[in-house]
Amino acid sequence: MPLLVMGPHLPGGQINPDEVMAWGLVHASLMQQGCAGNGLSVRETKSTLSTLNANNISSQARALAEQYWQEFGPQMLANIGCS
Questions:
Q1: In degrees rounded to 5, what are phi and psi of residue 2?
Q2: Distances from the Cα of 30 to the Cαs of 11, 33, 83, in angstroms?
Q3: Is 76 a member of any domain?
Q4: How far apart are CA 41 and CA 5, in angstroms?
Q5: Which domain holds residue 82?
Q6: pLDDT digit string (tens) for 23-40?
Q7: Domain for residue 73, yes or no?
Q8: 22 closest CA partner among 61, 51, 55
Q9: How many domains does the chain have?
Q10: Cβ of 72: how many Cβ atoms within 10 Å?
Q11: Rounded to an integer, what distance in angstroms lies between the CA atom of residue 54 and that of residue 70?
């Protein structure tokens, strides 16, 4: 997820904050399914749940995350050998 790494360091206006948040939600969804990270860390699990349930996520970011998951989810899961 290079966008997750780069996004916070780009100057404002260079990338849509909703897109960064949407990819963060997609990554959290992968983690929740045990398809990213080690899945054994309590801290990691809490962080994932916190991300997915955060109140400050805009409806636009949630909609983008759903769109990204629909478009790229199966490919991501297949590429990392997770189903």
A1: -55, -35
A2: 27, 5, 10
A3: yes
A4: 21
A5: 19-30+40-83
A6: 888 888 888 888 876 555
A7: yes
A8: 61
A9: 1
A10: 13
A11: 21
- Its pTM stands at 0.70
| AA letter at 70 | Q
Radius of gyration of the chain (CA): 13
Whether the CA torsion 8, 11, 13, 15 is positive or negative: it is: negative
Q: What is the mean pLDDT of the chain?
A: 78
For residues 26 and 79, what is the distance between their CA atoms, to the nearest angstrom?
15
Token pair listed for 70: 């629909």
DSSP state of 7: G
Q: Is residue 11 part of a domain?
A: no
Beta strands in the chain (DSSP E): none
